[in-house]
Amino acid sequence: MPATDLPLLIDAALEAGKIATRYTGSSARRWDKPDGAGPVTEADLAVNAMLERDLPAARPDYGWLSEETEDSEDRLSKSRVFIIDPIDGTRSFAEGSRTWAHSLAIAEDGKVTAAVIYLPRRDLLYAATKGQGATLNGAPIRVSGVTDLQSAEILAAKPNLDARHWLHGHPPEFLRNYRPSLAYRLALVAQGRFDGMLTLRPSWEWDIAAGDLIIREAGGVCSDRSGQPLRFNNPHPRLTGVIAAGTAVHDQLFEQLDPRGSGITP
């Protein structure tokens, strides 16, 4: 991995923020994607156009996977690949909220090696490079030290508490909270603001890749719902849910999941 990969992502994220904030959220033109895939705005497309122009130009031997670019099998032949969500939390952006993020990552042989999550409206830039720790606005961050699930505050949407996902037919006790951007949820856990996050529905790689590394470099654990480490640049770029937390809270969440449980509808 080139030593300059993280600065490259940081510069790209800052430029993405400049582009996105030129739009005014609720007044930005918006479309619904086919097959119920969710909304997209002109800001998503403008950010994606800049990233797809500049990042591959800087690393022409890297593959490309982005929510707003038609997927190509070409990336599967690449050792390194960009994994990009131009705007994570598009619904929040379109509503005029500040809780949306640019999520940029590079994976090498299936593992993320550099990552940035940037919330321009909140002036929060989370970053990590493999083996060098995680930061928020340049300062080191660590996951929470909470070890008891009952006293933990977990970021999770309500459908994750459905009885069918849990042993004994009911979820464990914990304090539930929610944020609309998956990338931001992961970043908040890495920061120690919350003790864990949980999503049991199939999740797109571009929502998760950057947060996976930032969590791990902040001392946490990030796995799929079966407890396996996450791997990226899959032929079908979707993961079977995510559990992210400090080791103790992660393990307690995983131990109470019913392995026969199915993913939930987004």
Question: What features would you describe in this structure?
Answer:
The chain has 266 residues and is an alpha+beta fold. The protein has two domains: 5-140, 2-Layer Sandwich (Fructose-1,6-Bisphosphatase, Chain A, domain 1), CATH 3.30.540; 149-256, 3-Layer(aba) Sandwich (D-Maltodextrin-Binding Protein, domain 2). 27% of the residues lie in helices and 26% in strands. It has helices at 5-20, 42-58, 90-94, 182-191, 205-217, 247-256, and strands spanning 30-32, 39-41, 63-66, 80-88, 101-108, 111-119, 124-129, 134-136, 139-140, 153-155, 175-177, 196-199, 203-204, 221-223, 238-239, 242-245. Helix 1 runs antiparallel to helix 2 and helix 4 runs parallel beside helix 5. It starts with a helix and ends in a 10-residue tail after the last helix.
- Biggest sheet, in brief? 7 strands, mixed
Number of domains: 2
Low-confidence stretches: none
The neighbouring-strand order within the major sheet is: 3-4-5-6-7-8-9
Rg, Cα atoms, Å: 17 Å
Under CATH, the homologous superfamily of the largest domain reads Fructose-1,6-Bisphosphatase, subunit A, domain 1
Strand content: 25-35%
Number of helices: 6
Report the average pLDDT across residues.
Answer: 92
Give the terminus-to-terminus CA distance: 34 Å
- SS class: alpha+beta
* Broad CATH class of the largest domain: Alpha Beta
Give the SSE string. Answer: HEEHEEHEEEEEEEHEEHEEEH
CATH topology group of the largest domain? Fructose-1,6-Bisphosphatase, Chain A, domain 1
Known CATH architecture of the largest domain: 2-Layer Sandwich
